[in-house]
Amino acid sequence: MPYRRLPKTDSAxxxxxxxxxxxxxxxxxxxxxxxxxxxxxxxxxxERLQTAVDQYRISFQAQTRHSTRMDKLQRNATxxxxxxxxxxxxxxxxxxxxxxxxxxxxxxxQATGIPNIKTIAGLLExxxxxxxxxxxxxxxxxxxxxxxPIGVVTTHIEIFKEFxxxxxxxxxxxxxxxEDLSQLRPVVDExxxxxxxxxxxxxxxxxxxxxxxxxxxxxxxxxxxxNEEHLY
Length: 232
Known about the structure:
With 232 residues, the chain is mainly α. Helix content is 66%, strand content 2%.
């Protein structure tokens, strides 16, 4: 004997509600067997769920597009910060810049390699330290590093920082949309549950081959157990 199971996805929930609402015969006075209160709740639930699904989809797509652009900006910023710090350390090794000056950049005076800038946090931290340190050294009379110049490094860091901030906002919006969906799903499931109870109650006196067919027409979803013969 087949058994019913509530929809597992939002698209299935929408399809179930739409199937019911599209059957005009249940709205007629003579044939109505789903009460108006449940029907009105179903209409509202369908509209709310459709809106929530659309909002989540739009937010997620915007986040994905922005993420692709941000990945490229992060790579560019990483390259420029890395090159700048490498040139700085080579200048120290050649004696062109005093080793004590490394403290202006937040680096240990005995540093021989660049810090970890592969993460976003590391890139933003050391990118800003490179900018601050270079400005402080130049203010004290030091000759600027030209390959790459700190102005170019600053531009790439600022552009990436701006995009990263936007990405965080997009991620927060997507997260909120997903939370809204999560809170709405149990409400929709309860309405579907009530609808199915009323539909099945209306056809309960019919033989199985008629009862299951009619209930399916109104959106009730039935499943057979593994290896169970499909009779209806």
